[in-house]
Each structure stands twice: as structure tokens, then as C-alpha cells.
Amino acid sequence: MAARVETFVRDVVIPYEKDMRRNSHGPSDELVDELKALARDAGVLTPHILPDGSHLNQRDTALVLRKSGLSILGPVACNTTAPDEGNMYLLGKVGSADLKERFLKPLVEGRMRSAFFMTEPADEDGAGSDPSMMKTICRLDGNHWVVNGRKKFITGADGAGVGIIMAKAEGGSADGGACMFMVDLPDPAIRTTRVLDTIDDAMPGGHAEIAIDNLRIPADQMLGEPGEGFKYAQVRLSPARLSHCMRWHGVATRAHEIAVDYANRRKAFSKQLIDHEGVGFMLAENMIDLKQSELMIDWCADVLDSGSLGTVESSMAKVAVSEALSRIADRCVQVLGGTGVTRDTMVEAFYREIRAFRIYDGPTEVHKWSLAKKIKRDWKHAQGAALEATPAMEVR
């Protein structure tokens, strides 16, 4: 399947990268539908989910998603892009049979896009990297939940047909906890106030600011159990972080290929660029970073496949891979020189997309802070265990 995806992306998708329907807020819905139709015909639409509805394990998903990422339009075409891929994963894990039939099925079939409404505006002290700061509120009213709040950086909200909304509960059995709800989009109570102009532009619908005013959701559209939203967020976010690593590994691989081709064709000072140590060494460092990133992805995938939630491992992978791929993209721009900062090649776009990756799904610094907290907890636990193992002093 990975080989079929690679052939499709290289032969069919890459020529679309210069399509005028790809704008500053992502590819248009017309372009998305056209690419998905081509993927459907080629048998590579939603390749990470099998015909019986089961999901490939994380190691096999890594093989497929890395190949889909060889073009920034590859995940869009193959239906492996964010946030849809993560939303499909969460629905498959937590959703009831009815919710899967109503919301998951059209996502898997590529008939609509989705959005995940969690992050909130920083200027309102809303939830960003710290979900516990969530300001969006839901309250039970008869057999409906009423939701009010503001969201920001909601990828794909503009034009989505399915939404997963996260809100903190007021009163009732979910008092103080977070809840998740499935909603049909568009809905007049969910309003896009603006689509942000961001450094990246690969994801359909861009990244939006959202106002939610008195949204009424039937109680049977709650995803999972009341008050368990933060737990479900981790079920989604750990593999989603890793999926980002997989897709952008493909993008970095392609950037490296373009830089290698340029360095072998271009001459300066009477020899090919690659024969200059400054250039050749950068490409060698790319090889090392690509392989180390691949190994890191596979290691984290194995942890998730073992049944672990993998929050620590996915944080480590997110930091290591995003930073390594960013170095690769930066070197590729440098190897291409003036051409690297133009849109004559896709390297400039790849650089912008990978740079954004270091921010979303948790900035590098937040993950390092979380890992440092674990180091401290482990140290305290080890000290306590050592004290318990020390025999009490004998009284004479």
C-alpha cells in the first residue's frame, strides 16, 4: 500500500502543486474533491483504514503516511491529513456505533472534511497548550447540551461537514470535567469570525477563529462519557502528534531530493555544488536527520502499538522530529541559494509548512517542560523507593 501511495503521489498529485486553486488558506474544496476522486480511483483513499473499518497499526501507518507526505497535497488527496486523520482515529476508538455510522463513515469515504474545536484565544486566557484553561462551557438543558465559547486556530473549520467540540461542563454528572460532542456543520450557532493568515497553507479551510453562541447539541451526540474529555483528548493527541511526524517526514524527504538534484546539476567555481564541502556536508546531515527521525517515529509507533497511551514518547518524538525536519528544510533552502527563497521550487513552501509544525500540537518548549516534570517525578519516586529500601537504624 505504501508503494502504491508513493506512485500515486509522485505521478498524479505533485503536478497539482502549482494549481491556482491552492491559495493562502489551503487548497479549495473543488481541488480537494478532485484529488480525492483521483485517489479513490487509484485505490489509495484513506489507506490507513482497512475495508472492515479497522485501523492499520501505528508502524504500518507510518509507512503509508510518510509516502503520502511526499507532496503537501498528498495527505489531502489520500485523506490522511490533519485534522481528519486524528478525528477518524478518535471516533474509531471512542464513538458509539450510531456516531460511527453518522459521522465516521463519511469521513473515511472522503465525502466531507472535519474540524477539532479545542484551542481557544490566548487574549481571553483560553485553552492553548494547557487544556485545563478551557473557557468554552457546556451545560445540560433537558436532553440537550448548550455550548458557548470561543475557539481559535481551528484547522479546516471553514468548509467542514463534521465537528468535534470540546467544552468544560457546568453542573450535572460531568461537573468540572470536559466533554466532547459530535456536530453537523455548518451550524448557525457556530460562526467563523475570521480565517487567519498563517505561515502555512497546506490544509483545506486554513485555521479559523470561531464563535459558538448557544449551540444546542442532542445528548446522544456526546462522544464517549461526560467529564472524560481531557482523557479522550490524550487518546487523540498522542497518535496525532506522531502522524504529523510521519507526514512531514515525507515533505522533508522531498525537499532533500530537490536539493540533491540541484546540487548535482549546478556548478560553481569549476565544480558541482555537491563537491563543495559546505554543500555536501549539509546534504549528509540531512541524510542523518532523516534516518534518525524515521527511527524515532518507528520507536514511538511501537510504543503505541504495545497498548501504551504514549504521551511521553509522543512528546519526545514531536520535539526530536519537528526540530530535525526543520533543520533539513532550512538546509535545503540554503543549498538552493537564491532559488530556495523563490517559488520556482516547492522547497520554500515545504520550509514554511515544517516551520509551523514546531508550533502546532504543542510547541517544542511545552513538550520539553512536560518531559522535565516527568524527570522530576521519576527522581522523587526513585528517592522514595531508595528510602524505603534502606533498613531502619537499629536502636541499641
Automatic annotation (TrEMBL):
A GO term from the CC aspect: cytoplasm
Cofactors required: FAD
Domain Acyl-CoA oxidase/dehydrogenase middle per the UniProt entry, residue ranges: 116-197
Pfam families in the cross-refs: Acyl-CoA_dh_1, Acyl-CoA_dh_M
GO terms, molecular function: acyl-CoA dehydrogenase activity; flavin adenine dinucleotide binding
GO biological process, one term: fatty acid beta-oxidation using acyl-CoA dehydrogenase
Domain Acyl-CoA dehydrogenase/oxidase C-terminal: 227-374
Keywords tagged on the record: FAD, Flavoprotein, Oxidoreductase
PANTHER family linked to this entry: ACYL-COA DEHYDROGENASE FAMILY MEMBER 11, MEDIUM-CHAIN SPECIFIC ACYL-COA DEHYDROGENASE, MITOCHONDRIAL-RELATED
Entry's family note: Belongs to the acyl-CoA dehydrogenase family.
Protein known as: Acyl-CoA dehydrogenase
Organism: Sphingobium cupriresistens LL01
